[in-house]
Structures are given as structure tokens and as C-alpha cells.
Amino acid sequence: MANPNPEIKYRQIFINNEFVDAVNGKVFPTVNPSTGTKIVDIAEGDKADVDLAVKAAKAAFQRSSAWRQMDASARGKLIYKLADLMERDKLQLASLESLDNGKPFISAVYDVYGSVNCLRYNAGWADKVSGETVPSDGPHLTYTRKEPIGVVGQIIPWNYPLLMLAWKWGPALAAGCTIVMKPAEQTPLTALYMCSLVKEAGFPAGVINVVPGYGPTAGHAITMHPEIRKVAFTGSVEVGKIVMSGAATNLKKVSLELGGKSPLVICDDVDVNEAAQIAYSGVFENMGQCCIAATRTFVQEGIYDAFVQKATELAKGRKVGNPFSQGIQHGPQIDDTQFKKILGYIDKGKQEGAKLETGGVQSGEEGYFIEPTVFSNVTDAMTIAREEIFGPVQCIIKFKTLDEAIERANATSFGLAAGIVTKDLNNALIFSNAVEAGSVWVNTYLAVSNQAPFGGYKQSGIGREMGKEGVEEYLETKTVSIKLPSKV
What we know:
Layout: E1 13-15, E2 18-20, E3 27-32, E4 37-43, H1 47-60, H2 66-69, H3 72-88, H4 90-101, H5 105-123, E5 133-134, E6 140-148, E7 151-155, H6 161-175, E8 178-182, H7 189-201, E9 208-210, H8 215-224, E10 230-234, H9 237-247, E11 253-257, E12 263-266, H10 272-284, E13 296-300, H11 304-316, H12 336-351, E14 355-358, E15 373-376, H13 383-386, E16 393-399, H14 402-410, E17 417-421, H15 425-434, E18 439-442, E19 461-462, H16 467-472, E20 475-483
């Protein structure tokens, strides 16, 4: 059962398997976005705390440590155990997630199960990471070893706090790395609860460390730290560039999953109702706070008016309200900053000539709720068609031919995801091959899976998460050559 007032046991920094206060003694508030009021104060970490966390993680990565000496299969079993504990505490985790993030409770439960499945998938990789023998020239036995990169820094966003934690922890642990993570300052509660499960599962001290705090202090300390070998970041393009710049100080490896302005192309050979439902799910998921949201909905001119009518009907029917209330599909935006930013984009859309079909205003009198918003008559040059809004705003754009749609879809600095809805296999293949995006979906959207790599083209990121590729991001390749006797 949902609990709108879950007990909050963990408010401190987690280092070396212990909860501790920040070195500077500071705290910061985490806020309930449904009301705009403080939930609780959290220990505010900064450089001094990151230094202690890195020290613990480095000790846990020493060659003789329990973690490094552990069999790969045993490491996998530990990750499985963590997943089992998550599943046991699913209602508590989901309640904390809804309270802190604002997503509907049923969506939070879905995210918990998604996180559990992600950890279990990566647990299976722990004893399957291997090198290969190489037929090198000369009398040599040459082989490669796949080794964990070392201490890694991970910085996660607020839109999917538990899922992003699992996406980062899973492959790093499977590879054998140790971790210093900073959760988003808006949503630290579930990450800290997960730390208690880390200790209960029996992970050696120092393998996982979590330092809540702000980006310019705790986050910056992670990106700049000379003993962190890799940094993984999910967030905006602007902050991603700062992270990459900081990582250059000691040439850390980086993986960046950044923003998007994803196109979804609707061809005129489809059922309008079905296509509108796919687009609706693709843009309003998680209150539009989704990096792969299909915010540029390209619709072929022959069905444009009918599509706009159906899209507007769906948006109007979306139930907005308290995330703990039954039947709610749409909660608040994450905070006041994001709330005002989205409303600013909506105003800009109206000023630049887009037609507001529905929504565009605050819902209710408290919290950060915005009604699902649909714009028609959107053109490529408009601000709402070019910039990532990260909110519940659907921009419906008219096109004539598929070639035209492809060119316009690619005319962006983003390249995270794309989709097409069509009954024509040739159109599906042409689009899938031509569009510049890391994930392409045909007659569906948001089809992300643990088994498939995820990441972006262009300024939407560097590297991949999920799948085999996700684990490889945390590995180094070592080549060993051994001279053989003359007669073998």
C-alpha cells in the first residue's frame, strides 16, 4: 500500500558502510513537489566528504581487499541479494520516491521493479566478463584481460532517482569497480535508503559510498578528484560539458547521458487513434521529465487535423493530482525552478505563434503541477521546437514527405532517441537507418530494456548504458604477451 508519510530513517552521508554527518555539519532541505514544503533536512556533502568517500572506495579497491579478492560469481550473488532486498522493501522505496520526486505511486512501484530487474541483469554479467586469446605474430601467447577501471564517480538526476541509481550501480559493480555517487539534491531519499540495503546485503565497506549535496560543490569535487578514474553523469547538456571539462584534469574516462529533443514521425498510413496514443505516452511520461520524451511530434499532413484533435482529447483526459491518490496519472514538476521554466517555454510558444490546444497553466493552487499541454501549428524555428523543455508539452509539427521529415528530424544538436509510426516496412527501415539517434523505435516508443545499449548521438551524450556495452564502460583492456619456448 502507498504510504504518503513514509518513515525517513536515513538523512546522512554514507561512507565506508556507515552513515555520518557532513564534515562541515551543514544540511539542506529536500522538498515535496506536491506541496512545495520541506520534507526533511539532509546532510550536505562537499569536497571534504567526497575526499573521505574516495579514500574509502580506494581502500576497497586495493588488490588485497575483500572486494578485489572476491570470486566474480560471489560478486554477482551480492548484487542479486541487493535486488532481493529492494523487492522486499518495494513499497517503502516507492513511497519515498513519490514523496520526494512527485511521480504517481504506481509509476514509482514500476520504477522499483525496473531497478530490481536492472540489478539482476547486471548481476548476471559479473562472472561473464572475460578477455580472449589473440593470434599474435612471433612465439608468443597473447591474451587480453578485462579489469575494473577502479574508483568511479557517478552523478545521477532527479527524474528517475532509483532507476538511474540502478543503471549506474549495476554495471559498475558487475565490473568490480568501487563507487562514489552523488544523488540529485532534489531527490536524495531513495539513494540513502538503498545504502542501508547495501550494508544489509553484506557489501564490503567502501565499495559503495553516497554523498548527497549540490552540483557545484559535491558534484564538482567528484569530477575534479585526481583518484577517481571514471565519471558517469546523467543530466543536461550544459552540466555535461562542465563534467567533461572537470574530468580532463586527470583524463578520467567519461560516460554522459544528456538531453534530447526527440522526433516521433507519424505517417498517414496509420490508425490515428493508435498513433496518438503512442505519441501521448511518449511525451507525457513522468510529467514530461524524460530525456527521450517525443516532444517533436511530426505528423503527415493528410492526418494532421485528426491527429491534433485526438492528441488534445488524450491530454485533456489525463488525471493530474496528488501522486498518492488513486487513479492519478500525472504528478507535479520537480521544483519551483523547473515549474517556472516550463511555463516560460509555454508563454514563448504562444508568443511565437503556436496554437495552444489545451493546458499551458498551473493545475491546482499548491505544488508544482502543470496541466498537460498540446501545441499545434508548431514550426521548426520556434523555441519550443528547438530547446529541451523537460515538461509536459507536446509540439505537433506538420510534414509532407518522409525525406523531408528525416531532414527536419536530424536538424538538431540532440540525438538521443527517435520513433516512427507507419505500416510501411520500407518507410520504417529508411527512417531507422537515416535518423541520427541512439535509440529508434518503430510503432512503439519508450521501449528501453536492460539488454539493449542506451545512449545518444551528437550532444546527447558519450558512451552507452545497459546491455553488454554498459558493463564495458567500466572496464579496462589489458594485453599480456608471454614468450613461448622454441618448441611448443
